[in-house]
Amino acid sequence: MVSLEKYKEEKPFFLKRLIWEILNKTIFRILVGKQCYRVRNFLLTLFGAKLDNRCLIYPSCTIFAPWNLEVGFKSCIGPRVNLYNKAKLVIGDNVVISQESEICTASHDIESHTMNLIKKDICIKNKVWICSQVFIGPGVTIGEGSVIGARGVIFKDVNPWEVWCGNPAKFVKKRIITNER
User: Fold this and answer.
1) Per-domain residue ranges for the chain?
2) Residue 122 in contact with residue 83, Cβ under 8 Å?
3) β-strand pairing of 82-84 with 117-119
4) Alpha-carbon Rg of the chain, whole angstroms?
5) Which of 124, 116, 175, 126 is nearest to 154 (CA)?
6) Can you say whether residue 145 is alpha, beta or left, with left for phi > 0 and alpha for psi between -120 and 50 degrees?
7) What fold does the segment set 13-174 form as a domain?
8) pLDDT tens, 30-63?
């Protein structure tokens, strides 16, 4: 039997989280345009994010915990992306996370009477494209060069240079780049 009256969740950064949430929903949002990306990145680094100074994070993104975020060289986190990163989220170089995608590092233990919180890191390697409205669950590693098709749902690791689509996402084919420019 589930008994949520005994559910407890530690909130070690409660005040920091509260301040960040206010900034993320106000000042961060009004810093629109590509020209303001450095100011947005600066705000994120003030809260502990590790960012390459050339990554682009859209102002409409929701980021739960900047201190659990790493974003590499020339990576882009698109409009209305939700990064629910209660655990560490590492995004490599040249990664695109398209609009309205959800990256979620936490869930609940459905075999626990109190549905205890489970947190697992997510790693998105270099040269990955996460298409629009994709959901990536806790503990997943997306291999280098992979593509997750629009509205795909990923709950297990994806090998390098693979294309996955669907709900739940399944392997479609190997990704082969035919014309380097």
Assistant:
1) 13-174
2) no
3) unpaired
4) 17
5) 124
6) left
7) UDP N-Acetylglucosamine Acyltransferase; domain 1 (2.160.10)
8) 999 878 999 999 999 999 999 998 999 999 999 9
Q: Identify the H or E element spanning 102.
A: strand 102-104
Tokens 């994010």 -> residue: 49
Residue 89 near residue 121, CB atoms below 8 Å: yes
Contact 72, 49 (CB under 8 A): no
Largest CA distance in the chain: 59
Residues 73, 52: contact at Cβ < 8 Å? Answer: yes
For residue 138, what pLDDT band results from cuts at 50, 70 and 90?
Answer: very high
Q: What is the distance between the alpha carbons of residues 48 and 46, in angstroms, rounded to a whole number?
A: 6
pLDDT tens track for 146-170? 999 999 999 999 999 999 999 999 9
**126 and 92 in contact (C-beta within 8 Å)?**
yes
- Tell whether omega for the bond before 12 is within 30 degrees of 0, i.e. cis: no
